[in-house]
Amino acid sequence: MGFFLEVLIGGLLGGVLYALVALGFVLIFKASGILNFAQGAMVFAAGLGFAAAMEKTSAHMPFALALATSLLLATGMMLLTAWAIERFVLRPLVNQNGLTLFMATIGVAFMVEGLAQQIFGNNIRRIDVGLPKTSMFILESQFDGGILVNALDLWTAVIAALLVVALSLFFQNTRTGRALRAVADDHTAAQSVGIPLNWIWFIVWSIAGGVALVAAIVWGSKIGVQFALTFVALKALPVLIVGGLTSIPGAIVAGLLVGMGEKFAEVYLGPSLGGGIEQWFAYVLALFVLLVRPQGLFGERIIERI
User: Fold this and answer.
1) 236: which DSSP letter?
2) Are strands 135-138 and 147-150 parallel, antiparallel or unpaired?
3) What domain count does the chain have?
4) 103 in a domain, yes or no?
5) Per the CB 3.0–4.6 Å rule, which of 54, 64, 180, 226 could disulfide with 124?
């Protein structure tokens, strides 16, 4: 029983990392109706920028001041990225169909990846923001030897929970949040009632950039900032499908389901089916959900009338 719980907790905490990246996808789609393929590249760029800033500032400042300065610089970089995407990519494509906008985000992904590596280099960078990375044993009195968990994963779960609460309140209880949802429903109608489309898109891409920065710091603290971070987006896509394109809580729940399912499949099915189940399990789960419930577990059913 102790081993079962250890696998369960490890899978759930690992799934939180997927959920953090999927949140960026949900934010963009919920507010603009665009499936943002560039979210993985934004995570990579944010991580490179933050790591480079920490390397420079920590050599001349106390740790706390260096951390605060690096966060401000990285946040400013993501705001500038959001402005550039809105100004030079989205604004010329207002009222275009979804496929056109999706293809545009693919171009943005390659452009962001290339510029980030051109400016900051492509070496693997380590991030240390003071979060504990040690492993520890819990429930030792209930189970022989206890259950092994990673302290960094626990902090990640707390951060993700706070983000979900904050974003849910923002979308439901603020005028800007309601305007974001109106823009996603119909660009032309939103403009006709005075909602500034360009400003709204800048806001949502800025928020998605902030979420990408948080995800980059967490992933960078765990495995370092490297090009492989861009492929995290490919794992976040099944999470997005399972949870639903428009549900913020759904992204978290789906991330937990995918993380848990991967671990159980690798541990219990791996010996008989061979290794590597973690690489494809999420996509099989997403395919099953598409067949049963195309809008995802928490997504909104879209009904189009002609």
Assistant:
1) H
2) antiparallel
3) 1
4) yes
5) 226
Work out the number of other CB atoms within 10 angstroms of the CB of residue 174.
11
For residue 180, is it within any domain?
yes
Look-up: residue for tokens 């380590």?
126
> Average pLDDT for consecutive 10-residue bins of the chain (306 residues)?
77 81 82 81 91 90 92 94 88 80 90 90 83 76 74 83 82 80 70 78 87 87 78 79 85 88 84 76 90 84 55
d(CA 217, CA 197): 30
Full domain range(s) for residue 142: 15-230
Report CA 62 to chain centroid distance, whole Å. Answer: 30
Kindly state whether residue 296 falls inside one of the protein's structural domains: no
Rounded CA-CA distance 163/17 in Å is 13
Is pTM beyond 0.70? Reply is yes
Structure tokens at 41: 């590249």
The rounded distance, in Å, linking the Cα atoms of 186 and 192 is: 10
